[in-house]
Design goal:
Layout: H1 3-17, H2 29-36, H3 40-52, E1 56-59, E2 63-66, E3 78-79, H4 86-90, E4 95-105, H5 109-115, E5 123-132, E6 135-145, H6 154-157, H7 161-168, E7 173-183, H8 187-192, E8 201-210, E9 215-224, E10 230-231
Parallel strand pairs: 3-10
Antiparallel strand pairs: 1-2, 4-5, 5-6, 6-9, 7-8, 8-9
Length: about 240
């Protein structure tokens, strides 16, 4: 986890505990930079993250204010525009992965279209159960071109794929298209998430591309409707 994410998490905990009350102003960026022994740029990145997640609001010329809408925030809510991944959002010490399927195959016609591939370009087909504090949370169905993600292994899949992409392969994300929808459970949801035949499932379908415009990932992340929701914050600036 990057420094600005650690700082954001610390400030978030203080907000939740009431150390920084709702509608109060946070300490100035200079003070936070001194406290955490980082640059003002790092603090700004942390505050930008908190603003995207709906914890604070920057008032021009006044400072950063704690918002009063936190009653809507659930324990496992995730920002819909997050690029961080589950491990970065919750802490790698709390998140673990069970590999259900890990194979290399040729893509279907539909997958070729989603990832801009030729039918002879092999892809990783990955199904993982992600656990938070050893409790099942999300099932991820992920497809990535082998040519773009070399040497992917079970050891990497047991941790954070995104960490491997960023730190080892030095891949930077350029953007993501996401669609959120409700669905009925499939066999994996019933077996690994404990869903019954009619339990509503929330699914995020996404295509992630790199900063050079290459489609890197097509995935579907599925969870019980009661276990996780997604938040979006819009501001006027």
């Amino acid at each position: 986890m990057k420094k600005y994410q650690l700082i954001a998490n610390t400030i978030k905990e203080r907000i939740i505990k009431g150390i920084y009350p709702q509608q109060s102003f946070l300490p100035k960026q200079e003070e936070l930079a001194e406290e955490f022994s980082v640059s003002k740029i790092t603090v700004k990145s942390a505050l930008d993250l908190l603003e995207r997640e709906g914890f604070v609001y920057k008032e021009s010329g006044l400072g950063t204010k704690v918002l009063s809408n936190l009653i809507l925030l659930g324990q496992h809510d995730s920002p819909v525009n997050s690029f961080a991944g589950l491990s970065a959002e919750n802490g790698s010490d709390r998140v673990s992965s069970k590999i259900i399927k890990f194979e290399v195959a040729f893509p279907s016609a539909d997958l070729c279209e989603k990832l801009n591939l030729d039918e002879n370009d092999p892809v990783y087909e990955i199904i993982r159960l992600r656990l938070l504090d050893d409790e099942p949370l999300v099932i991820e169905h992920t497809y990535m071109p082998v040519s773009q993600v070399p040497a992917l292994s079970k050891r990497i899949l047991e941790g954070s794929i995104y960490s491997y992409l960023h730190k080892k392969l030095h891949i930077k994300f350029g953007g993501v298209f996401r669609r959120i929808k409700a669905d009925l459970p499939d066999k994996y949801d019933r077996q690994y998430l404990g869903a019954n035949e009619s339990t509503p499932i929330l699914e995020i379908e996404q295509i992630v591309w790199t900063n050079s415009g290459v489609n890197l990932e097509y995935s579907r992340s599925r969870n019980l409707y009661s276990n996780r929701s997604y938040i979006m914050v819009e501001t006027s600036h």
